[in-house]
Amino acid sequence: MQNLSKVIKGLNIKKQKIKPMILNKTTNELINVKITCADNFLKRFKGLMGKKDIDFAMIFSNLKDSSIHTSFMRLEIDVYFLDENGIVFEKVSLKPWKFYRPKKHAKYILEAKKDSLNIKKGDELEFV
C-alpha cells in the first residue's frame, strides 16, 4: 500500500493538474479524475473560489485546521474528510456561501463537484 503522504508530496512536485487514479479499496473501484493539490497557504485559501464548473478534484494537505467554506464559489461541492490512513470519516455536500467544520481534524480534504465521485463515508482511498 502506498503511503498517502508520499503520493501527495509526489503530486506537489508536478505543480499542475495530473490524472492519477483514486483506488477505492473498499469497493475495489478505480476512479479516474484530475487532481489539483492545495499544499500551501495561498492555494488552500483560493481553493475553488470563483469557479463556475470544474472537471477535477482538489486535495488539501498540510492542514492546520479542517474547517472549510464555500464563499465566492459558484457551484455545489462534495467534501471528503480523510484520516492519516486515507479513510473517509466524514462527507458533506455544500452549496455556495456555507461554512463547515468536521467533528474531528482531517489529515487530508478532497473536494469535487457534487455527485462526481462515487465515494462514501467509511471508504478507504489510495492514490495510484
Describe the structure.
Helix content is 13%, strand content 34%. The strands form 3 sheets. The protein has a 5-stranded mixed beta sheet with strand order 3-4-9-6-7. A 3-stranded antiparallel beta sheet has the order 2-1-10. It has a two-stranded antiparallel sheet with strand order 5-8. Strand 3, helix 2 and strand 4 form a beta-alpha-beta unit. The longest helix is centred in the first third of the chain and has 11 residues.
Chart the SSEs and their pairings:
Layout: H1 4-14, E1 21-24, E2 29-32, E3 34-38, H2 41-46, E4 56-60, E5 68-69, E6 77-82, E7 88-94, E8 99-100, E9 108-113, E10 125-127
Parallel strand pairs: 3-4
Antiparallel strand pairs: 1-2, 1-10, 4-9, 5-8, 6-7, 6-9
Which features does this protein show?
single chain, 128 residues, mainly beta, Jelly Rolls, 5-stranded mixed sheet, 3-stranded antiparallel sheet, 2 helices
Annotated CATH topology = Jelly Rolls
SS-based structural class? Answer: mainly beta
Distance between the termini: 9 Å
CATH architecture: Sandwich
Q: Total strand count, please?
A: 10
Name the CATH class: Mainly Beta
Spatial strand sequence of the major β-sheet: 3-4-9-6-7
Helices, by number, come to 2
Low-confidence stretches: 11-17
What count of structural domains?
1
Percent in helix: 10-25%
Could you tell me the radius of gyration in angstroms? Answer: 13 Å
CATH superfamily: Protein of unknown function DUF192
Proportion of residues in extended strands: 25-35%
Q: What's the main sheet like?
A: 5 strands, mixed
